[in-house]
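Help needed: design a sequence for this.
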């Protein structure tokens, strides 16, 4: 078992650099979901109770995406959850940040600007390379210790995740510790009956390795969302094209076409693909079409009801169901049916279930599911499924390697 120091091992009254993950859905510049804030507030509250000074480091979105915004609004949401001021600093590791860190006193909390705006945070590189970035070299000397709490980003070999533990005393925060322990316990379970995985969402890069690595554990994969459409395209159907300027489909197709075609060929008996899809018609209404009637000129925003019912039946007949990624654009209630139908089937049966994905977990709140109807709800997406597949997460490894 991987072991790391936790915040229980910290002496009180330290100056701490705390990496959290409050990456959230953002619309028109405004954060739409506070699940991750609520969880990290628990770690921060404990740190404040132990009289530490806390500087928070976090990211939001990816450069080039609409969700790549400043963390100013995030500081207010966090302050509400903590019921304690969180001062936003519009800089990550320059003079303004260093001045704010200099002023930091025990009991204070500051949030530094989006770390992905800083040179050196991206791209993914080896931890020793990341340890040499200006970001790590500059901030590391300002603090007594680093707290890694960003479990949802623990699969990314970015400077703020793997670089600091190379050069600083490092500890796992509560989110990191709890999510790691929970997924580890799931991996050790065996199930008396079929195991189903519902895979949707937008990130083919996170889904493809799962399909290959969970081959022994999962009996059937029900695919939807952008990922499902990419598989349909690999099977020769007229879907999965960028028609609304989102660059979600065509770029991923170029990057992953060979893998998609290979997996479709080798795992055909385990893969369940949509047989119908839903789109917005000219009158603005949800309309469904079978695969024979699809066209590459139209964006599809959900799986159709025949597909949703088939996936719901498979889930209801399972001993365990793992969900990662939504089957449609659930933020628009016209296109939430696929995801909601399948989650309802899972909630109504007593199978073991894990629901993951930063966005997917939001469906539970938006559509008023009772969280207790699921065995486990993870605030992570890509990190949770990789851990489920037995992959070591670099962010956990970095904390474990810390002397
Ligand atoms: N057909 C689709 N077209 C565009 N976006 C989609 C589609 N299906 C699902 N999505 C989007 O996928 C998002 C969830 O994606 P992702 O980030 O991969 O999952 P998670 O955050 O749950 O890990 C949702 O916000 C949803 O709107
Ligand atoms: O939200 C996240 O991942 P998730 O969508 O898989 O839950 C993490 O913050 C990682 O973000 P990234 O996938 O832009 O590296």
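Sure. Designed sequence:
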């Amino acid at each position: 078992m991987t072991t790391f120091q936790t915040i229980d091992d910290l002496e009180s009254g330290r100056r701490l650099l705390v990496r959290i993950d409050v990456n959230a859905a953002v619309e028109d510049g405004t954060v739409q979901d506070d699940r991750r804030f609520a969880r990290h507030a628990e770690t921060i509250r404990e740190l404040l109770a132990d009289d530490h000074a806390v500087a928070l480091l976090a990211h939001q979105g990816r450069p080039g995406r609409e969700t790549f915004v400043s963390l100013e609004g995030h500081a207010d949401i966090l302050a509400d959850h903590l019921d304690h001021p969180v001062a936003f600093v519009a800089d990550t590791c320059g003079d303004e940040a260093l001045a704010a860190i200099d002023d930091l006193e025990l009991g204070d909390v500051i949030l530094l600007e989006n770390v992905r705006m800083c040179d050196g945070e991206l791209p993914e590189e080896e931890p020793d390379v990341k340890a040499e970035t200006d970001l790590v070299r500059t901030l590391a000397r300002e603090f007594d210790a680093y707290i890694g709490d960003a479990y949802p980003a623990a699969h990314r070999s970015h400077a703020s995740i793997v670089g600091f533990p190379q050069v600083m005393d490092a500890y796992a925060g509560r989110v990191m510790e709890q999510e790691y322990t929970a997924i580890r316990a799931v991996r050790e379970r065996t199930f008396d009956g079929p195991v189903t995985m519902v895979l949707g969402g937008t990130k083919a890069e996170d889904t493809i390795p799962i399909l290959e690595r969970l081959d022994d554990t999962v009996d059937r994969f029900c695919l939807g969302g952008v990922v499902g459409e990419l598989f349909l395209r690999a099977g020769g159907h007229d879907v999965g094209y960028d028609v609304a300027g989102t660059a979600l489909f065509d770029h991923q197709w170029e990057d992953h076409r060979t893998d998609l075609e290979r997996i479709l060929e080798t795992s055909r008996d385990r893969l369940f693909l949509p047989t119908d899809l839903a789109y917005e018609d000219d009158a603005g209404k949800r309309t469904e079409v079978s695969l024979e009637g699809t066209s590459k000129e139209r964006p599809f925003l959900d799986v159709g009801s025949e597909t949703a019912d088939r996936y719901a039946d498979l889930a209801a007949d399972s001993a365990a169901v793992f969900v990662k990624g939504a089957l449609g654009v659930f933020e628009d209630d016209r296109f939430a049916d696929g995801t909601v139908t399948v989650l309802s089937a899972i909630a109504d049966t007593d199978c073991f279930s894990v629901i993951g994905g930063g966005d997917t977990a939001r469906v539970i709140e938006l559509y008023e599911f009772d969280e207790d109807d699921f065995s486990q709800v993870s605030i992570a997406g890509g990190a949770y499924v990789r851990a489920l597949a037995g992959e070591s997460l670099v962010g956990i490894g970095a904390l474990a390697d810390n002397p």
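The longest strand covers residues 15-19.
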